[in-house]
Amino acid sequence: MSNRNAPAGRALTRLFRGPWLFQLVFIAGVIAFAAWRVNFEDVGAAFRDARYAWIALALFIYAVARIVHTFEWQITLTKVGRAPFGGLLGALLIGSLVNSVIPASAGDVAKVQIVANRYGLSRTGLITGRGAEGIVNGATLVIFLLISLALPATGFGSQKLLILLAVTTLIVFVAAAVGSNLMPAELPSWRVVEALPRPPRDAFRHMWPRFHAGLEVIRQPRLLLIAVVLNLFGWLVDLGILWSYGQAFRLHLPFAAYLSVTVAVAIVTIFPLTFGNIGTYELVLLRVLTLYDVPADRALAFAIGTHAIGTLFVMLLGGAAMAIMGIRPSELFSLRRSEERPAAEAVEADTR
Length: 352
Known about the structure:
- Helix content is about 75%, strand content about 0%.
- It starts with 5 loop residues before the first helix and ends with a helix.
- The chain has helices at about 5-35, 40-50, 50-75, 85-100, 105-120, 125-150, 160-180, 190-195, 200-215, 215-220, 220-250, 255-270, 280-290, 295-325, 345-350.
- It has one domain (about 20-350).
- By secondary structure, the chain is an all-alpha fold.
- α5 crosses α6, α6 (about 125-150) crosses α9 (about 200-215) and α12 packs antiparallel against α13 (about 280-290).
């Protein structure tokens, strides 16, 4: 990393240093809890009895899911700018790799940096688009939460808490949809804006259209419909992945039960407490699976197996993407960016 980026690197180090101690203590607590609840010899037996052809199927489905997610991201960036599909897919895979080893959802930062530096897209638009994508994903989560609560064969945790989460998410989605449609394309001449000193006022005027562009997927009904359909398909793909893992570890659960597992994994992913969700993922899945009378040792084998195998596969795909795109680790959080070029010119230059 260049000297110009050293302050940013030190800032990131300070940002991540604090949560590390808490996360390590939390992970140690989860390990102690698992050691108290299960027999690790039985966990090893569950791994030996696993049917690894089903795991191969789960990994294949995961690769398909990444491609679908890239299409969804491309739609989100409709007004932000154009970037090649392969470049977005690579950035997505690298972001997943970073999230698996660094806390605080740093993979989203890496994705923004890669696409901004490579293809000249606005960071403001990319960050806003990521927020819009999260809002759409939250709306889809509400659908799956309601289905999960309606089916008698599913359910986990406090129903009141899940209903509160669903209602809150729905309110955020409606507020974002209404606000994005009322939002003008250019920053209005509000008194509070005009009263600001010139540098921040000019910065707001510069960023406002890019912020507006990032919300296009929520503002346009056609784009929103496509995004929701792709998001629903992505959820079904995630459900298929966990079902395949369940066949591998011989859980013998009804298909509807995997809906609860999928929702639980989604909630853990949305609210990460540890880097790579280590500990929280296993604890939540152990809790959910025991509701369906899955033995603790087999439930823990499923949780550890899906997490470890999935993480290794994510790291493999992310490492391959970095090698193909020629991205060094030091570039992932670099503030360096190329000359300001229209996105179309950036794409053309990238393909030459």
